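[Q] Does anyone have a clean structure-token version of this?
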Amino acid sequence: MPAGRAARTCALLALCLLGGGAQDFGPTRFICTSVPVDTDMCAASVAAGGAEELRSNVLQLRETVLQQKETILSQKETIRELTTKLGRCESQSTLDTGAGEARAGGGRKQPGSGKNTMGDLSRTPAAETLSQLGQTLQSLKTRLENLEQYSRLNSSSQTNSLKDLLQSKIDDLERQVLSRVNTLEEGKGGPRNDTEERVRIESALTSLHQRISELEKGQKDNRPGDKFQLTFPLRTNYMYAKVKKSLPEMYAFTVCMWLKSSAAPGVGTPFSYAVPGQANELVLIEWGNNPMEILINDKVAKLPFVINDGKWHHICITWTTRDGVWEAYQDGTQGGSGENLAPYHPIKPQGVLVLGQEQDTLGGGFDATQAFVGELAHFNIWDRKLTPGEVYNLATCSSKALSGNVIAWAESHIEIYGGATKWTFEACRQIN
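[A] Here you go.
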């Protein structure tokens, strides 16, 4: 740029910036910048000022965003505190409602009030203690009822007197628990009273449990090894029985058992057999509102059984690997049949046979919603297809009835877990 034109450019820029020299800026220093010849110098200076203003606005917006972020974090903390307080209030409300129901029910445990395997709300120590005492009382009462049935068949003055004494103790304990519920609802009692009363009740329960166990031992010693039944009173994922013996490889089978249940919807899983790599090698299950099904190597056949009426029923399923032909019997009568159920697939050996639970993994992975609820007895397995006459003999408790040649029903073959119990089998006694 020629020197003269540069001087004129600097002069024009100075005039634009000073606006006619209306303000006194003191000593002034001019900075000259090369710009294209055709550019409007005053407009360029104004644009420069607009960029500066824009930068200032961006800084202000950034400051506003930071302030709003701090406000949001503060509000989140407040919401978290309020949510925690609301949860505590709901938990306390739930406990109060539960205590009221316990009093209305006479301290007796309601159906379905077993362990919640999906997680519980937090409970106060006193409420938790009362819940445990209620469960213990219900268990003892169930055992006493079974002993009472046994005593009716084996009339003994000593057994009857013990039964009356135990019943009296249970009634006293129920009154104490009910009284404690009322005290909690009225807000009375302190930690010291809670501890003393809990120790006293637990001591009485321990003594009661020991007496009932003695009677049960005498009952067990006096009965044959196959005259027993398993009881699964609650739908849990921890109550089951395991057959000590595994199955061999089988190209045909018959599985029979006695069942008694009033559970709904679905009685659950009377038995499941899992092998490495296949949890559903052989399963009998009635889940939800679906009909009872037999699974072999994950292949399914629907069965015509209707058994959840609270009465004893005898069921049998036969199957052969050739064409996958199966038959289903209820109470000695064939009610259904089919084919193409896992054809040419032999039942694999070296697995785990569980009563009362469905296995998702070998020997475990139980789901409470699929658990069997009710009573089960005379579970037998043969490695062949039984004839209709042989099935009828089993269902009518005939003296000609056969025991399973693969799995035979015997106390020495069964291990029980999680509170499942053994009692004297009663179905055949009712038939005969």
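[Q] Thanks! Anything notable?
[A] The mean pLDDT is 74.
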